[in-house]
Amino acid sequence: MNYIKNILTQIEDLSGIKDIVGASEEIASMKMRAIRGQVLESRDLNEELTEIYREVTTSYKEQVMNIVAKKQNKSVAELAKQAQTSLLRGNGQTACVFLSANSGFFSKILEKTYKEFAIYLDSHNAKPIIIGEFGRKLFTDQFPGREFNFYAFSEKQNNDDALQKVTKDLVSYENVIIFYPRFESLSSQTVAALDVSGSSKDASGTVVPKAHYLFEPSLEKILAFFEGEIFAGIIHQTVTESELARYASRITALDIARENINVKLKAVNLEKRFATHRLMNKKQTEALMGISLWKLA
To answer: Is 234 among the domain residues?
Structure first.
C-alpha cells in the first residue's frame, strides 16, 4: 500500500511541476510576442546604423586628427594620440560585454554565447563587462579573482534606468564588443558579436570598409550625435535583441521539459497500473486461501 502511495505522490508532484512549466512557457511566450515585432522591424535599421557608425569612425580618424591639429596649431604627430581618443569614447580601453540573464533556464544559448565571450577575452586585452547574474557566475567560476564590471538586469521590471547606466559607462570606452544571443526563429538562436566601436576590424576580424561622407553641419557635430543618440540606440536594440533570443530559448527549454515530464508521467502511471494489479492479485490470493482454510476447518 505504501508503494502505491509513493507512486500517487510522484504523479501529483509531476503534475504540479507540469502546470508550473506550462505557466512559465506561456509567460515567456507572451513576453516574446510583445517584443518580437519591435525587434524584427528595427533590426535592419539598427544594423545599417551600426555599419554607418563604424564606417564613419574608421574612415575619418585621420580627418579628425587634422581638425584638432589645425585648431590647436600643433602638428598631427603631436596630437595623433589625443585625436584618436577624442574621436570616440576615448579612454583607450576595449570593453568586452556579455549579455546574459539572471537565470539559466534558457536552453544552451547563454552557455554558447559565454564560450565565445571567454575565447575573445583570452586572445584580447579587454575589460570584461557582465550583464546578468547567470553570466557573473560563469565568469567567476572560470576566472576567479579577475576584475570585471557587473550590471544586474531584472526580468520582472523595466530596465530603462539600468540600461542608461550601462550606456553611459560604455561610452567612455574606445572600443566596445558585445556578445549576445541573436534571435533567428523560435527554434533557432545563434551567438552574435557586435562591434560598435568603429575600430578597423570587427569582432570577427572583418576589415571595416571605408566610405566617403559629406558632413553637414560639421564632422564634429555629426560624431557627437553618433556618440550620443545613435550609440545609445544601438545598445538598446542589442539588449532587446538578446532578450528576444533568451525568451525564445526559454520556450524551447520549457517545451523540452514538458515533454520529459509527460514521458515520466506515462511511465509512473504504467507503474501505478502494475502495482494496482499486483495488489488486486494479492488480495484475491489471500481471499482464496482464506476460503480454503475455512472449508478445511
So the answer is: yes
